[in-house]
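User: quick one, sequence for these tokens?
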């Protein structure tokens, strides 16, 4: 095992990303659900705002852990032709799977953001976070979606990914920090001592905590910057 849990992985990633601490042009975007736990640690350690970007895996009907692609909240779709062919999925099958995930995205968007829209990303640096990537489908679909929103830079932070997935992601972003690319690679959870299920309530709680901490920290920094320098004695 490389990590005790998702929080531990987030702390280790934050140590590698200290150059972005307090960057007022950066936002942490976490892929729910598990990525939000990692993202919360990054948000806290680096004093950055946290939000979610909702992308859902398109899984084969008889193999729920096997991703044939992913669909993002902005409509970007990534499909692995090899995976679709291997699962013998028709266009009708794919349409049904994509429609189901879009419904789930709408539900999550309403619940996680509580009526808020996607944050403004134009000319901002996005720190995209998940708790790991196997096929990379959700990350790749998200990167397609983010590119259309014209961010200034995209940085990806992941605890683990297989070498082939890591290589594909690195080719698409400005910076990529992946703590482990060990082979052989089975499942993301194999690299964690604890890899408990993250619930929607856990996601909402983490978002609230990060928001309260960031607002409080920003207030303190504004007060300190407005204070006159100490008089020399």
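Assistant:
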């Amino acid at each position: 095992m490389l990590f005790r849990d998702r929080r531990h992985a987030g702390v280790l990633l934050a140590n590698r990303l200290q150059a972005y601490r307090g960057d007022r042009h950066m936002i942490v975007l976490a892929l729910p659900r598990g990525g939000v736990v990692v993202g919360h640690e990054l948000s806290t350690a680096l004093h950055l705002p946290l939000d979610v970007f909702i992308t859902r895996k398109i899984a084969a009907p008889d193999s729920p852990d096997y991703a044939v692609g992913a669909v993002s909240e902005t409509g970007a779709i990534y499909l692995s032709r090899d995976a679709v062919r291997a699962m013998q999925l028709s266009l009708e099958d794919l349409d049904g799977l994509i429609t189901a995930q879009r419904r789930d995205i709408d539900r999550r968007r309403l619940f996680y953001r509580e009526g808020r829209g996607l944050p403004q990303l134009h000319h901002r640096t996005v720190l995209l976070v998940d708790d790991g990537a196997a096929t990379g489908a959700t990350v790749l679909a998200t990167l397609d979606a983010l590119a259309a929103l014209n961010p200034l830079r995209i940085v990806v932070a992941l605890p683990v990914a297989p070498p082939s997935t890591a290589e594909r992601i690195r080719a698409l972003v400005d910076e990529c920090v992946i703590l482990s690319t060990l082979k052989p690679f089975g499942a993301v959870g194999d690299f964690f001592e604890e890899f408990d299920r993250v619930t929607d309530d856990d996601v909402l709680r983490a978002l609230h905590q990060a928001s309260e901490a960031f607002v409080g920290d920003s207030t303190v920094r504004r007060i300190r910057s407005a204070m006159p320098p100490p008089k020399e004695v």
